[in-house]
Amino acid sequence: MDKCEAELKNLDRDALEAEVVRLRSTLAGIDAADASGELALHAFDASPVMPTSRDAQARKAARQRAIFESDIDFAIILSDPAGVITDWNAGATYVMGWTAEEACGQSSAFFFTPADRANGWVEREMHQALQNGRASDERWHLRKDGRQFWASGDTTPLYGDDNLHLGFMKIVRDRTREHLADQAIEETKERYRLAAKATNDAIWDWDLAGNHVLWNEALEEAYGYPVASTETSGDWWMAQIHPDDRARVSASIHAVIDGKGSDWTDGYRFRRADGTYAEVLDRGHVIRNAKGRAVRMIGAMLDLTTMRSAETALRESEERFRTILETIESAFAIVQVKFDADDVPVDYQFVEVNPAFERQTGVDLRGKWVTEFAPNLEKFWFEVYGHVAKTGEPANFENYAEAFQRWFDVRAVRVGAPEERRIGIFFNDVTERRNAEDRLRVSERIARENIERVQLALAAGAIIGTWHWDMQADLFSVDEAFTTAFGLDPALAEQRLSLEQVVVNVHPDDRDELTRKINEVADRGGAFAHQYRVRRADGKYYWIEANGRVDHAADGTPQNFPGVLIDVEERRAVEAERDRAISALRTLNETLEQRVVERTDELMQAEEKLRQSQKMEAVGQLTGGLAHDFNNLLAGISGSLEMMGIRIAQGRLNDIDKYMTAAQGAAKRAAALTHRLLAFSRRQTLDPQPIDVNRLMTGMTELIQRTVGPSIVLETVGAPDVWVALADASQLENALLNLCINARDAMADGGRITIETANRCMDRGAARTHDLPEGQYLSLSVTDTGSGMTPEVIAKAFDPFFTTKPIGQGTGLGLSMIYGFAKQSGGQVRIQSGVGQGTTVCIYLPRYHGEPIEDRSEVDSKSPLPLETGETILIVDDESTVRMLLSDVLSELGYTVLEAADSVAGLKILRSNVHLDLLISDVGLPGGMNGRQMADAGHEIRPSLKTLFITGYAEKAAIGNGQLGPGMQVLTKPFAVDILVARVQDLMKS
């Protein structure tokens, strides 16, 4: 090692920084020798350099180059202002592995980690160096072989004449060993701190030079001395040792300190803070310096008094334990686990059992092997008990034992020596509880259904008003619908009313009972429901039902009473009519049987009217939204068609295209609305196929990026070895695009959208949380950094026509369509969001065990394939306009077309001798058979006949629960002519 190399090797960080300042003005100025062998040196420092002779300049440049290349422990990299490497010393090759030829010309970012490159760390470092004159960092870098090393780096800008920025110099030193050593030291300190905190022993750390002792918190817990106020000298410690033991302990501990040993152990009596003495066993370890001198001693003081008391208590406890085992209701057994030659558990014997064991299991198994009683016992029990016996890891679980036909809650622990392979088992028969839980799950399902019905009632207008009563202040907050229902001035909805103001219009005959009911629920709290009559603005009395709940404070004082009003006028009238009919039927039961039948029929009709009324109220909200959207679309279609008729009559054909485009656009939007509603109702026609979701996501990336715009950063994260999903690819694409558009709308000022796929295994708990069957699923999630949602918005997000967007900027069907599509596909959708924290919407689709299908490219409808023969097509549809359109389109392509208006006529042709190449049939047909049933009947005669189903609405049963047979495809109405032609030609070719 020469002098320069030795000097650099011994530099610390500050000295190295000073050397960087001295060298930066010259290192980047070394140029290649010119034709005469002289060196041209360019000064990079802003200050002028005094002219020297060319020989002196050459010697200086050579010396600088020698410094640049001298020390292989320092990587020195020169780059231009853009960060492109221009020079690379031997130290850089030694530290990172790349040669100068490999490194020069690359960006300085190439030896940074991918995470730092993605976060723009290199650019940030150069910017900081320009601003502050230097940039220092310590972080992970890459070597050529892909390994990482911890580097201490400094980047400084280089300047030439006239303060011209010429580039950067970065000096890097490999400090991996020091970094890992520092981490190990910190981890050791943390483990020591945690151990000292967790143990019950009094831990002491004695600084022998300063005679200073540090204690852990156990000093106070075990002996009563507060650590914060206790004297910390070694003399105080010795002063607490019993006088009869003090000299002996002092001699023994100093014999170890002054000698060459390291471990010390002794027992003595230690005075507690209350003056009593504890018998302790003290152990210590001496730490010596390089010269062998003791500088520190660390130890732990164990209270033997507690241990000896514990031994006595243990004997008493064992007796109590045996008594408890004989009397407790929990079953207990000690089990000897048997292993085969491969150390696999194959049987277990009940060595000892308590009386409750026989009561719980119904059999006496003491001394018996379990396979004697239950030769077909589930393998699960052997595996769990064998694992506990071998590893000592306790197990706590619930499982069903078929041999006992009961559920057991089991706690298993190892007992005795490990080689004995024995375990202790506590268990309880929880069959009744499990049955109760099953009943509870059924009850919860019914409750969820009830909640859905309530939500439907809210949306449909069955609830006619709401209130919130502050019972302590006697102030009502009501909505305008409430004032209307109570016959009050609507302006009062903006005020807070008293109970007296609210009940002023209650029927006099109902007021006392209402007051009694209110007082009753105020005393007990909980749910409230009561029916009474209220006079409205027209002077008439109407029956209403008030439903609410009283919440109590901690002291039992009634606080809040929120609730809703339900219009029961019609129901009361129907019930009254029903009661009168029942009374009359009972009176005439013996003599007028025929009249009873007639009145019963009238009653059933009245009840049917009631149910119909309730159903119509429930769908009111939905039909309102449909009417609004469809009226707009029909106005565009009918208006455009009318204008086309006028222009054709006038001979003005130039405007026809404009109105035709408008009508077609409105029709397509109407079709999209219908598809979204069918998706929400889970009745859309799907074509589920095995698909690679990663490939689908990648294929849509460009389209999504164009859709969300340049202010949104789009990131896709595809899971490796992602499972194949079974779903309709086009519907999944629509769902993904809709989610990305929603994410864009939630980020008005730009942000990031992350699309991610993952494999998910749903066990029983996870499946119950996600409302899915147990199994394997493929998840597709879209995450944004937008404004997020409140819990109230999340609860309504999937409702049809619910939207938080301004009027005209959203239909409220996007998420409901995605929800319906996922549920119909056998999956689920879940939302995770918080206000200001962004939103994640995750679609779960069932895993398909097989390979994904290849993408099927549609045949170009503008260039129909030439027909080699005049194929014959049978069209079956009850709509004459559809048959006409299909016949015209296919006839113009050269096909021979036969038509049938119902399933009877269609089946007659299928059973005839007429040659047929393709069947096109609606799914919903009159004539007693649907399209699928007719096609299946036809296939018995023509097994090779290809079929194209066309449908606007299809029950699952009509298309085989979404599974089509070979040579079958489905096309959803309305459809474009070119799509129809492509499907027909695709089937003809297959």
Automatic annotation (TrEMBL):
The root-end lineage is: Bacteria, Pseudomonadati, Pseudomonadota, Gammaproteobacteria, Pseudomonadales
| Protein name, entry field | histidine kinase
Name the top EC class: transferase
List each copy of the Response regulatory domain by range: 872-988
Q: Where is the Histidine kinase domain?
A: 625-849
Q: What is its EC number?
A: 2.7.13.3
* Species, as recorded: Phytopseudomonas seleniipraecipitans
Q: Where is the PAC domain?
A: 135-187, 264-316, 528-580
Using the record for this protein, list the coiled-coil segments as residue ranges, or answer none.
571-616
Question: Which keywords does UniProt give here?
Answer: Coiled coil, Kinase, Phosphoprotein, Transferase
Annotated PAS domain residues: 60-133, 188-260
Which residues are recorded with the post-translational modification 4-aspartylphosphate?
Answer: D922
